[in-house]
Backbone:
């Protein structure tokens, strides 16, 4: 008689599956709560202690960790010496393993659970069994996902056994899952011990969905989430309207959120194109904030992403109505605003994100490199104080705009500079190999608005040429990290043109 060992925490569909196996002539072995459930359902079940001749012990910590179980799973059916050994020891074949693990993930993400409770949900016997069965997939079928019950039953009914291809597929699922499971345990201990950069770094992600394609149509892609979904993230968003998000939508939308999280005090709108801000505005009303963001670059906003830190009202929605916007994100929408934004716009993606300005995340910033990865803290810090290095001190209004510009420029691709005026971006230069080029781009975009504006730069000025250009355009103040060997020359140039300059002593490269 072929045998199946069934021991599951998640008992979804298990009685029906076990009955089908019984009808197909399988003997059932089981443990603990699963054994009781199957017996109560009228199945004939052999308790695991009858196989092992050893009682479950240590409060259930040891049940299936036994040679009579693992030899029955692991022995190679095509190797005479293995067959002779299990026959000599009177060990029965175990042909199917059905097991899913203790809910460590559920417990580790529950703040009410104690350390001791979390530790007890680290499964030992389950991973040992399913890994053993997966290793011996040539002969053994392993199921850890109830969604695979139908596949296995179909093949058993048609061919009396599962195909090698199916067993290999199921084995692969096991190793993917146990790696994910172990990554959560490792992350828990790293967090508990305060280890930010462990010697061996593992990070588990769950697939949310396949994407139609990646950055380009010839690239495959999928969307994944971390075990614990933080508020204010794109993963936590609820889509209310529009077609499915694409790879670029997700990437750009995340860029918009990163910038938006810098602004909490006033109604603010962030417009993003290709992950970079193309316009940001803050104002007393959201509609005015949107107009400021739009007017920075009313061409680049076409096909862009919008993020709002306040509920979108009808007036703001009217401003957005006739602009082609790929994605709009906000904490909420008034009923009238939602109607306006969706009218004749079946593909426009409308997302709600609770606590959209939350910026307290424990996750790291990861960048893939060929054959490796680089890992760092997220760049969430802003300067606590600044140093005025010029003869003229910035006015209160200039300081307000300098701080505004600094919050935006840190989220632009380096080299990056931008001009800000009246809590709005008026010219943005980014992604250049030369800082002077970005300054040129900023003032060209701003046009007449450059007069009376301030400039924010993500890194220092290596030469005075940028200051000379800004002076000609009527820019009145500059914020930059400082730290160049040319700092004295740059400061002198600012003094000659009556430009106020402050150093933050903090750089914000973004590559």
Residues:
């Amino acid at each position: 008689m072929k045998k199946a060992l069934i021991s599951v925490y998640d008992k979804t569909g298990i009685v029906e599956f076990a009955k089908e196996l019984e009808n197909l002539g399988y003997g059932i072995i089981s443990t603990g709560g699963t054994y009781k459930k199957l017996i109560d359902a009228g199945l004939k079940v052999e308790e695991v202690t009858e196989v092992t001749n050893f009682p479950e012990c240590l409060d259930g910590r040891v049940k299936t960790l036994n040679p009579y179980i693992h030899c029955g799973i692991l022995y190679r059916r095509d190797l005479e010496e293995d067959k002779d050994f299990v026959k000599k020891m009177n060990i029965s074949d175990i042909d199917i393993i059905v097991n899913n693990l203790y809910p460590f993930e559920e417990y580790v993400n529950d703040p009410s659970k104690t350390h001791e409770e979390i530790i007890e949900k680290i499964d030992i016997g389950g991973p040992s069994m399913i890994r053993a069965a997966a290793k011996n997939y040539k002969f053994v079928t392993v199921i850890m996902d109830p969604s695979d019950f139908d596949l296995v039953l179909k093949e058993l009914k048609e061919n009396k056994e599962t195909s090698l291809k199916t067993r290999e597929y199921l084995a692969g699922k096991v190793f993917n899952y146990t790696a994910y499971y172990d990554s959560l345990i490792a992350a828990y201990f790293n967090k508990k011990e305060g280890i930010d950069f462990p010697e061996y770094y593992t990070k588990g992600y769950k697939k949310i969905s396949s994407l139609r394609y990646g950055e380009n149509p010839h690239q495959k892609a999928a969307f994944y989430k971390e075990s614990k979904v933080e508020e204010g993230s794109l993963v936590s968003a609820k889509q209310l309207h529009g077609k499915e998000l694409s790879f670029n939508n997700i990437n750009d939308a995340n860029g918009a959120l990163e910038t938006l999280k810098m602004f909490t005090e006033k109604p603010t709108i962030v417009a993003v194109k290709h992950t970079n801000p193309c316009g940001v505005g803050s104002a007393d009303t959201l509609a005015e904030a949107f107009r400021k963001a739009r007017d920075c670059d009313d061409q680049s906003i076409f096909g862009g992403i919008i993020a709002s830190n306040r509920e979108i009202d009808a007036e703001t929605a009217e401003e957005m109505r006739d602009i082609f916007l790929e994605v709009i994100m906000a904490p909420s929408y008034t009923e009238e605003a939602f109607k306006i934004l969706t009218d004749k716009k079946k593909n426009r993606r409308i997302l709600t994100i609770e606590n959209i300005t939350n910026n307290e995340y424990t996750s790291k910033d990861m960048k893939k490199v060929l054959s490796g990865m680089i890992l760092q803290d997220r760049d969430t810090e802003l300067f606590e104080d600044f140093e005025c290095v010029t003869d003229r001190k910035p006015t209160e209004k200039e300081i307000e705009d300098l701080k505004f510009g600094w919050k935006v420029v840190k989220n632009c691709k380096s080299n990056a500079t931008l001009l800000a005026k009246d809590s709005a971006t008026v010219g943005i230069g980014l992604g250049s190999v030369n800082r002077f080029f970005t300054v040129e781009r900023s003032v060209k975009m701003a046009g007449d608005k450059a007069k009376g504006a301030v400039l924010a730069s993500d890194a220092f000025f290596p030469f005075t040429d940028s200051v000379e250009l800004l002076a000609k355009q009527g820019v009145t103040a500059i914020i930059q990290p400082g730290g160049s060997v040319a700092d004295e020359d740059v400061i002198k140039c600012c003094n000659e043109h009556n430009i106020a300059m402050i150093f933050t002593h903090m750089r914000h490269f973004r590559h």
About this structure: The CA atoms of residues 79 and 275 lie 58 Å apart. The chain has a mean pLDDT of 93. The first strand starts at residue 3 and ends at 8. DSSP finds 18 helices and 21 strands in the chain.
